[in-house]
Amino acid sequence: MTDEIGSDAFTPQNELEVELVRAAHEPAFRDAFLRELAQAEIYLALLPASGRIEVGADGQAVVPPDVRLELAPVLQDGKTYLPIFSAPTRAQAQYQADHFIATDKMRDVCLRHPGTEFVLNPGSDYGVLLLRSDVEAMLRGDLTAH
Q: What is the pTM of this model?
């Protein structure tokens, strides 16, 4: 796990983000954060592969039946990662274009994307790279052996 700590402008919006900030400042809490993340509900930004997301009368996103959504990988330091977010506002800050925010369990996302490396909150003051070894340890529940 690689922490990228920025300014103090990051205000935690949920318990997961409180633990993220703590782990970034106090490495002894890293494994506890990863254990919590493994069980946490996270947010995914789904982008239209074709077509456009529409806005309904209630202001909510509406995905027309002919629009296919996909997770768009991000490129960081020459490597490709699947982006995940700790709060909807983190995804909204990253994607200004059409996107749909969905929730999912981190563990389920990892199981559906084996061998994938992730970046939590790309572009945020508190972004975390989750390397393959981190993801595998999270799935095993073995966060002290690496």
A: 0.84
